[in-house]
């Protein structure tokens, strides 16, 4: 099972804005190479396909799309590849946020 992490400002002291807004994410990820925005995440399994609506910033790494999801003021990502860890830390640093498991 994959570990899921949350990039959040909920543990930050003022004056940093507590939530990470969708507009802030759109601006940030638009400036990052290998990222694209999607309103739907489609997961294809051997017997079925599932679509999840939301705000996804897809990171294309080695030909695989890895979703970073904005949800209720935080950004979530599952560790599906070890390369996600340094990218997640870079994003959290740039957004002045912390990384927590869950």
Describe this structure in words.
The chain is of the alpha+beta class and 102 residues long. The protein has two helices and six strands, in the order E-H-E-E-E-E-H-E. The protein has a six-stranded antiparallel beta sheet, covered by helices on one side. Strand 4 (64-71) and strand 5 (74-78) form a beta hairpin. The radius of gyration is 14 Å and the shape is globular. The two termini are 13 Å apart. The mean pLDDT is 92.
Radius of gyration: 14 Å
State the share of residues found in helices, binned by percent. Answer: 10-25%
Please give the count of helices: 2
Structure class = alpha+beta
Order of helices and strands: EHEEEEHE
Indicate the overall shape.
globular
Strand order of the largest sheet: 2-3-4-5-1-6
Largest sheet: number of strands, sense, barrel closure: 6 strands, antiparallel
Estimate the mean pLDDT confidence. Answer: 92
Distance between the termini: 13 Å
Low-confidence stretches: none
Beta-sheet strand percentage? 35-45%
- The number of distinct β-strands equals 6
